[in-house]
Specification:
945 residues, alpha/beta, Isoleucyl-tRNA Synthetase, domain 2, five-stranded parallel β-sheet, five-stranded mixed β-sheet, 29 strands, 15% strand, Val/Leu/Ile-tRNA-synth_edit, EC 6.1.1.5
Length: 945
């Protein structure tokens, strides 16, 4: 039989089978008379199943039940993937889906190889968004409820949101034990106690101290904000000067901060000048000091002026000046001119007003110079001037008390500047100003009294701990290390007799901090006879930093499983400044002195954002959001938003370069669905042709040594696919897996092997050698392909596994066993193993044909398809040579193997030798003559005649 028959020939053979059966001269041929004798494909494996029904059928088997089974039954090494807790606030978005699915692919690939996976899903349950959601549901304002009532309401809201997200995560096919007993939440008592113990250890290590520090503060929501929570809008600003015989001309966009002025900054390397204004009406005005490079730009403010002196900035440093409101408040001490590297001559006057209470740069400079002392701050929790403003403005400051600094307060400060003659000019321009994203109202930078962790002493240890951490992608290492290098302190929490406090809270619960009396939290040794405890001590209402909160999640690993650190942490790239960093710093800072500091993770993997198909950030206001649940379950209009199921979403996520930002839309989803469909059809073809488990149990498999060239080639390609997949999983490069899998299914199998094997599968006898060889190959192909695809599309893999093995056990309960090296074309693999070649294109194949007395159909096949052989072998050339015509030249090296010729006693000798020609720079095959720039084929394309 000619096993190389084309698909068209195969169809003709089936339709005209009567012609070959002795009915040649019949004029009434029945084309279907022998159809019953053909072994046509037969399978119950559905072509287009309902994803919802399939997932409901297999969800427990491949998710929760599988996780419990593997933790008890697998004997391989433990693999720990530590889950960064998503925020318990609302439905999942596509970023959540990408994050959890990537983690799940990693976990499943580990289970497939026999490793015991520890994966404990968690949730971040603290923070203002949850609190605001709870207050909105209550219809109350935070000022109208006691803290404990707000905490209880927020607790309920968080738990409800966890239940919603838990259900949605399970719909994505995430393998985990999702019960409350095995997941973690930052509001759990055990979690909070571990967190407080980490803080206690940092206190004992001498890292905690208290002082004022400026933070973003939203008067509209009466809360501090992280920098990422502020968005910028345009605001007007003013320029002003200091009215004295010699004036320091400064400008500011926030006049309300002038009451908290603690210094004026100059750049030591700039040149400053003293200006004398020359206009007739200004001849008695004080002199001005500005940066030399700003003189021309400031003409509209200063008017015509002569330079009467030049002063290096370094000589101004250390000089003193009288506070701007000294005339309203006699007795104010002089202030100092300080050096600052952020001062430039690009805008303003080259002199910068400093209010450390209201600016991070100002704060950092004063801290570094040791000038912080008592930070001057006159702003209350509602963003209003407090009565303390009178200390720097005098009784005239009464007009400011109670005024919002962003509204009437700023206008009244400007009025005071006019009163003391210090206002040079008001100039309205536009600049970017931070707004609270929750209330859409402006925020301010203001100092609050906080506990801090001093990170300067542990920074070197933290950086050293990162040296043995692997980063994927590798470039993300520099991102995290730069954030650690730049950080010098960290907002922390309460500081008091911690050990005693922790013992009380551990027994009576965290909420008892708000309910219990002060004396219960103070050990007797610190109480003074005859003095009420609450006259000496008070309970702090400071809030633990949210990153400290979630960042101590590493501490539960050692407690639960006695493991030093996680094997992998995977989160979005924004977590370099967040969770990745907070884990590292809390772990290092709480380590015992003298002990080697370890990072809490061995490998860090980051992924980008999911954008819409045009590259824009997904936003409800733009209407461009693609919900993961809509992809899985379908939308309201199923024609526009069909039910794709979890596997399609997972396949898309696995197929992209996830470490960069990725695009998602209807076209991309349709392409992913088509990719899954083609793989499914490949499996369906195999299942339909190999027969039932009972049929295969009675079949004698064909040994590798007995197989023909085509079968060997397919098995070789299957092993190449498998090795590519193993490498892809080990490098967390899942796109490498999906590309190789799709190419193998669509090209190697569907377009080639299936096409040429149909004839034998359909028409040969069930126990024929050719059919058994094909079925032997197809069995292994399906087994290996299913092991490869299972971590990515588990529902499809479970469905295939059940149909193939007629069992209800999970595919993940069968360990993935890689193919033996015998399936590789031996000579090529030996040459590669001996480092003679890196790529098979560096070699040539010679097939030495034996001198046969009788014609061999197999040899005739080789001769007819000789031009195809180099494509089969993926070498630069492949030729047929008679044994008698073998040349006398000796190549640099040669590898020889043999294979049986079907229905013949002779063997076919296969010689692997180095390619004789040079590498073509266009197609990379070694087919170029040394004197030519390209090979003949590429020359004909690039330079057609």
């Amino acid at each position: 039989m000619n096993v190389w028959a084309s698909s068209q020939r195969c169809r003709n053979r089936i339709q005209n089978y009567a012609f070959f059966s002795g009915m040649r001269h019949s004029s009434t041929v029945d084309n279907h008379a022998f159809a019953h004798s053909l072994l046509l494909p037969k399978t119950s494996f559905a072509l287009r199943p309902n994803p919802t029904e399939i997932e409901a059928r297999y969800r427990a088997r491949t998710c929760s039940d599988l996780y419990k089974w593997q933790s008890k039954n697998l004997e391989g090494p433990q693999f720990i993937l530590h889950d960064g807790p998503p925020y318990a606030n609302g439905d999942l978005h596509m970023g959540h889906a990408m994050n959890k699915i990537l983690k799940d692919i990693i976990n499943r690939s580990q289970v497939s190889r026999g490793c015991r996976v520890q994966y404990i899903p968690g949730w971040d349950c603290h923070g203002l968004p949850i609190e605001n959601k709870a207050l909105n549901e209550l219809g109350e304002d935070s000022a109208s409820l006691p803290p404990l009532a707000i905490r209880h309401a927020a607790h309920k809201t968080a738990l409800r949101q966890i239940d919603t997200q838990r259900d949605q995560f399970q719909r994505l096919g995430i393998m985990a034990d999702w019960s409350d007993e095995t997941t973690y939440r930052t509001i759990d008592h055990s979690y909070q106690m571990r967190q407080l113990r980490v803080f206690r250890d940092m206190v004992e290590n001498g890292l905690i101290y208290r002082r004022y520090r400026p933070v973003y503060f939203s008067p509209s929501s009466r809360s501090a904000l992280a920098e990422a929570e502020a968005r910028l809008q345009r605001r007007p600003c003013v320029a002003l000067g200091h009215n004295r015989p010699i004036q320091l001309l400064v400008w500011t966009t926030t006049p309300w901060t002038l009451t908290a002025n603690m210094g004026i900054a100059v750049h030591p390397d700039l040149v400053y000048v003293v200006l004398r204004r020359t206009s007739e009406e200004a001849h008695e005005l004080p002199l001005l000091i500005v940066a030399k490079d700003r003189v021309e730009a400031l003409t509209g403010i200063t008017g015509a002026a002569d330079i009467v002196a030049e002063v290096p900035g370094s000589e101004l440093v250390g000089s003193s000046y009288t506070p701007i409101f000294a005339s309203l408040c006699p007795g104010l001490p002089a202030l100092e001119i300080i050096p600052a590297p952020h001062v430039t001559a690009d805008s303003g006057t080259g002199l910068v007003h400093c209010a450390p209470a209201h600016g991070a740069e100002d704060y950092n400079i004063f801290r570094d110079l040791g000038l912080l002392g008592e930070i001057v701050c006159h702003v209350g929790n509602a963003g209003e001037f407090t009565s303390e403003v009178i200390e720097t403005v005098g009784e005239a400051g009464n007009v400011l008390v109670g005024e919002s600094v962003l509204d009437g307060g700023s206008r009244k400060v400007v009025a005071l500047l006019k009163e003391v003659g210090a206002l040079a000019k008001i100039q309205r321009i536009k600049h970017r100003y931070p707004y609270d994203w929750r209330t859409d109202k402006p925020i301010i930078m203001t100092a609050t009294s906080q506990w801090f962790a001093n990170l300067d002493d542990i920074k070197a240890d933290a950086l050293a701990a990162l040296e043995d951490v692997s980063f994927f992608p590798a470039i993300s290492r520099s991102r995290l290390t730069s954030f650690v290098q730049l950080r010098s302190e960290w907002p922390s929490s309460i500081h008091s007799p911690l050990e005693h406090i922790l013992s009380v809270l551990d027994k009576k619960g965290i909420e008892y901090w708000w309910e219990g009396p002060v004396e219960e939290f103070i050990p007797p040794a610190l109480q003074v006879d005859g003095v009420a405890v609450d006259e000496v001590w008070r309970k702090s209402t400071d809030t633990m930093d949210v990153w400290f909160d979630s960042g101590t999640a590493w501490s539960m690993l050692a407690e639960r499983k006695n493991c030093p650190r996680a094997d992998v942490c995977l989160e979005g790239s924004d977590q370099h400044r967040g969770w990745f960093q907070s884990q590292l710093l809390t772990a290092v800072a709480s380590s015992p002195p003298g002990q080697r500091k370890l990072s809490p993770y061995a490998t860090l993997i980051t992924h980008g954002m999911v954008l819409d198909q045009t590259g824009k950030k997904m936003s409800k206001s733009l209407g461009n959001v693609t919900s993961p649940m809509t992809v899985v379950n379908g939308g309201q209009d199923l024609k526009k938003e069909p039910v794709y199921g979890a596997d399609v979403l997972r396949f898309w996520i696995a197929s992209v370069d996830y470490w960069n930002d990725t695009y998602l839309g209807p076209v991309v989803l349709a392409q992913a669905a088509e990719g899954v469909r083609k793989i499914r059809n490949t499996a369906r073809f195999i299942l339909g042709n190999i027969g039932s488990v009972e049929t295969r149990a009675q079949m004698k498999r064909v040994l590798w040594s007995e197989m023909g060239l085509v079968e060997r080639y397919i098995m070789h390609e299957l092993r190449v696919l498998e090795q590519t997949a193993i490498e892809g999983y080990s490098q967390y490069n899942f796109a490498k897996v999906t590309v190789a899998l799709s190419n193998f299914a669509n090209v190697t199998l569907s377009s080639f092997y299936f096409d040429i094997s149909k004839d034998g599968l359909y028409a040969n006898a069930l126990d024929s050698f050719e059919r058994r060889a094909t079925v032997t190959v197809l069995e292994q192909v399906l087994t290996t392909m299913n092991s490869i695809m299972a971590p990515i599309v588990p529902y499809l893999a479970e469905e295939i596994h059940e149909a193939f093995n007629e069992t209800e056990s999970s595919i993940f309960m069968t360990k993935w066993k890689p193919l033996e090296s015998e399936w590789v074309l031996g000579g090529l693999e030996e040459a590669r193993g001996d480092k003679k070649i890196k790529s098979s294109l560096e070699a040539e194949v010679e097939l030495l044909l034996p001198d046969l007395e009788e014609p061999s159909p197999f040899i005739e096949l080789l001769q007819r398809e000789e031009n195809l052989l180099k494509t089969l072998f993926i070498t630069s050339d492949a030729t047929l040579i008679d044994e008698g015509s073998l040349g006398t030249t000796s190549p640099e090296w040669v590898y020889v193997s043999t294979m049986d010729i079907p229905s013949c006693e002779e063997d076919l000798t296969i010689r692997i030798r180095p390619a004789q020609l040079e590498k073509c720079s266009r197609c990379w095959t070694f087919t170029r003559v040394a004197s030519e720039p390209l090979c003949p084929r590429c020359t004909s394309v690039v330079h057609p005649t």
